[in-house]
């Protein structure tokens, strides 16, 4: 839910401009995998906070607390260092992309009332 906003805006919607400049620099020099590295790093750095929340608490955390956490330059540098250390296996992003498209297609097919009924009858 929030990751799509992060990716579409290159993290500029909620994060401080200085940090966004650095993310855009990384994106331009290293390519689109940078976005996944930043997102994974955000989740890793926030793991304990996220695990202590219920679903609604997590949504609020992503919307309010997470961006506030990285307002300070030192925290932004920590995020970028963590992102630089993330190693994505070759083809991992392609696997995630294929899974995304599969889920997206299933979601679209369930929007059609006839397909939704067919899907319900199969179960």
Report on the structure:
The chain is mainly alpha-helical and 123 residues long. It contains 8 helices and no strands. The longest helix has 20 residues, at 92-111. It is globular and about 55 Å long.
Strand content: under 5%
Number of contiguous helices:
8
SSE pattern, N- to C-terminal: HHHHHHHH
Count of DSSP strands: 0
Q: Unreliable segments (pLDDT under 50, ≥5 consecutive)?
A: none
Mean pLDDT across residues: 87
**Estimated helix fraction:** over 70%
Radius of gyration: 17 Å
The coarse overall form would be: globular
Decide which structural class fits the backbone. mainly alpha
| Main beta-sheet annotation | none
Distance between the termini: 27 Å
Give the arrangement of secondary structure elements:
Blueprint: H1 2-9, H2 17-30, H3 33-45, H4 47-51, H5 55-69, H6 73-85, H7 92-111, H8 113-122
Structural key phrases:
123 residues; 8 helices
Describe this structure in a few short sentences.
This protein has 123 residues and is mostly helical.
């Amino acid at each position: 839910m929030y990751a799509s906003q992060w990716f579409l805006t290159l993290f500029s919607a909620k994060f401080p401009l200085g940090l966004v400049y650095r993310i855009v620099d990384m994106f331009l020099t290293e390519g689109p995998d940078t976005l996944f590295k930043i997102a994974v790093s955000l989740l890793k750095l926030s793991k304990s906070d996220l695990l202590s929340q219920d679903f609604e608490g997590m949504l609020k955390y992503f919307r309010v607390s997470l961006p506030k956490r990285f307002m300070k330059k030192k925290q932004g540098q920590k995020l970028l260092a963590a992102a630089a250390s993330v190693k994505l296996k070759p083809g991992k992003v392609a696997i995630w992309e294929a899974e995304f498209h599969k889920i997206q297609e299933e979601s679209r097919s369930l929007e059609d009332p006839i397909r939704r009924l067919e899907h319900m009858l199969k179960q």
